[in-house]
Amino acid sequence: MTLHSESTATGIDFATDYVSTIDGKAATSPTTVEVYNPATGKVIASVPVTTRAQLDEAVAAARQAFHGWAATPPAEREALVSALGDRLAEHAEEFMTLLTREQGKPRAGAEWEVLGSVAWFHEIAKQSLPEETLLDTAERRVVTRCTPVGVVGAIVPWNFPILLAVWKIAPALVAGCTIVVKPSPFTPLCDLKLVELMQDLLPPGVLSAVSGDDDLGRWMTTHPGIDKIAFTGSSETGKHVMASAAGTLKRLTLELGGNDPAIVLPDVDPEKVAPALFWAAFQNNAQFCNAAKRVYVHEDVYDAVRDALVDYARTVKVGDGAEPETQLGPIQNEPQFRKVREFFDDCRKHGHVFALGGEIGDGPGWFVPVTLVDNPPEDSRLVVEEPFGPILPLLKWSDEDDVIRRANDTPYGLGASVWGRDLDAVERIGRRIDAGTVWLNEVHQYAPDQVFGGHKESGIGAENSVHGLAEYTNWQTITLNKAPDAV
Q: What pTM, to 2 d.p., does this model score?
């Protein structure tokens, strides 16, 4: 598949000319940063590095546009957000191809992300936060309503650059906020084109995009003209975002890292559960905050489940996402590739046993083999930390209370899963896991009306559903004394 050289509907070139969008207009910069195809390691584009003055301009335009956008009737805002979904659907093929080039994910993953983003636009556009009448008598009326928080700064990660941008754009606009989007410098292309593509549907300044480096993120989190930061990324970076946002008491939604446990009961069929466990751990090449990163298997079926996982993993094709048979792509960027390599080195240093994989070859591209580590110590780096790459520890358990304690013994609390035929036991264990989402006999099921967020150091606030929509608003209570002689 090749990139369409030009969109006939909008005149936007998907192959070249990547620009920021500020106040409805294209913006370039004298300084640029290169973007790489992770499957080849070759440069595929360059994007502008936004200056501090340009960020000020984008924020000023967003503030200027805010009052008119907030005053737009909610039904009109919702219709326009739905139209954004229509526009994305019209260009789904261009975005899928571009996503594979810059992020590395295969076609199936690109389809899931792009078409999922279309669905999110459409479904979030149906959500609302109606006023709540608390009291209405002849003497007094008391109403609580949600008002838009103001200008939002959205900082988007590189693992799901389109979908996780839409998770912020759609609710912000429905709530009546304006938004400035900062893509990851590793995957800026789709987000820059997405925002550029939407400009004729929205008033200038309502939706802007600025590309840049780490300095840009710091400028956004401290900018006095930005009222809220919506951030997806690592827990360590999230702490820095929270600290720098404190100076202006910005509202925050932080969706951060995870070290999700999967608990496998002794009554499973190893051959049937192995594919589900594999994709729970290795979807998007394990570059997934909600990937299963520790798999606890009951000792009665440990060997059988391990062997079934090894057998299934050998059937999965790792390669360039542009090749039709590829099921798992490369690590997205070189810094993350080096980080994942450290986990391999640590396993070898401490004599951990590889049930599969264990050796990273030379390029081209940042490829890492699917690797399973056979029952490493509970305090090993691989178990305690988040690799964010395709290396997975398998761990034995025998006592239910003990495995729950081990599963919860982490600063993270994003997601978890439990697998077994005894549904009472599955649910009993699941309800004791300290995580924002616990899947029982399934995994990675998301929906626009299903709240998503983390416990502990996995985040603050929520995305999706009316709970996520409310994150872009302030509560306001209005009271009215109806007595004619009140004043």
A: 0.95
Q: Which residues pair with 452 in a beta bridge?
A: 463
Q: Which of 196, 255, 457, 463 is catalytic?
A: 255
Distances (CA, A) of 208 to 115, 195, 204, 252, 407: 22, 7, 8, 19, 41
pLDDT band at 486 (very low <50, low <70, confident <90, very high): confident
Q: Is 255 a catalytic residue?
A: yes
Question: Dihedral of the CA atoms 300, 306, 312, 313 (nearest 10)?
Answer: 160
Task: Give the whole-angstrom CA distance, residue 252 versus residue 90.
Answer: 33
Q: Among the options 289, 347, 457, 471, which is catalytic? A: 289
Q: Give the integer Cα–Cα distance in Å for 247 and 243.
A: 8
CA distances from 363 to 217, 284, 317, 368 (A): 31, 19, 17, 10
289 is catalytic: yes
301-313 pLDDT, tens digit each: 999 999 999 999 9
Model confidence at 8, pLDDT cuts 50, 70, 90, reads very low
What are 123's two structure tokens? 């479904």
CA angle, residues 65, 115, 164, in degrees to nearest 5? 50
> What integer is the mean pLDDT of 128-135?
97
